[in-house]
Design brief:
eight-stranded parallel β-sheet; binds zinc ion; binds D-xylitol-5-phosphate
């Protein structure tokens, strides 16, 4: 059986020594590196953006997994792929129409990236079913986006299961990623429901033993 992939979020790293933190998680077995980009408009927090991604993207060998929590993903999609995003995930709620969703997916693919879409806790998972054949990844938020260190919202589990069933029934290979409040317990629950990739910030970066924390998510 394929093991769950682990994507530590650098939002919980210490930016004063970010490159050391990145090296530590890579050495500890992290598969993907998760970038939480926030614009202070789509979410009530500001984190970092293109220049930071550009400088970090080529300094390690993990997959650059970029989650843009911004109000205008169409305008920035190509720029983030050019800056080094392997997977670029934008929010369904930031789009004005289904056409816009398809346009952004196309922009990402034309720039050479893999395309993901994310839904917030209050958005039903069925909303993204029309796009699944074009998507490489779906990111199910299990906290309200904006901040690390929040508690896992359990309704996410039902969404993962529903999406897993739909993907399998239709033989679609899109990956399921879960983000927010992931630890050894909630991580295992997500994996059982069919998640492929787990994002974890505070659980990994606050752990006494980072290697053990990462291993506990790889079931
Ligand atoms: C929230 C971010 C998450 C967050 C996860 O907006 O998308 O990636 O940093 O942090 P934890 O694992 O601490 O909930
Ligand atoms: Zn994220």
């Amino acid at each position: 059986m394929k093991k769950t992939l682990v994507a530590p979020s650098i939002l919980s790293a210490n930016f004063a020594h970010l490159s050391e933190d990145i090296k530590r998680i890579q050495d500890a077995g992290a598969d993907w590196l998760h970038f939480d980009v926030m614009d202070g408009h789509f979410v009530p927090n500001i984190s970092f953006g293109l220049p930071v991604l550009k400088d970090i993207a080529h300094t390690h060998s993990m997959v650059n997994d970029v989650h843009i929590m911004i109000s205008n993903p169409r305008e920035y999609a190509q720029k983030f792929v050019e800056a080094g995003a392997d997977y670029l995930t934008f929010h369904y709620e930031a789009c004005r129409s289904d056409t816009e969703v398809f346009d952004i997916i196309d922009l990402i693919h034309h720039a050479g990236g893999k395309a993901g879409i994310s839904i917030k806790p209050n958005t039903p998972v069925d909303k993204i079913f029309p796009f699944l054949y074009s998507l490489d990844l779906v990111l199910i938020m299990s906290v309200e986006p904006g901040f690390g260190g929040q508690s896992f919202i359990r309704e996410a589990l039902g969404k993962i299961l529903r999406l897993r069933s739909y993907l399998d029934a239709n033989d679609i290979k899109t990956l399921i990623e879960v983000d927010g409040g992931i630890n050894a317990i909630t991580g295992e629950e997500c994996t059982k429901m069919g998640a492929d990739v787990l994002v974890a910030g505070s659980y990994i970066f606050n752990a006494e033993n980072i290697e053990e924390a990462i291993r506990s998510l790889k079931l």
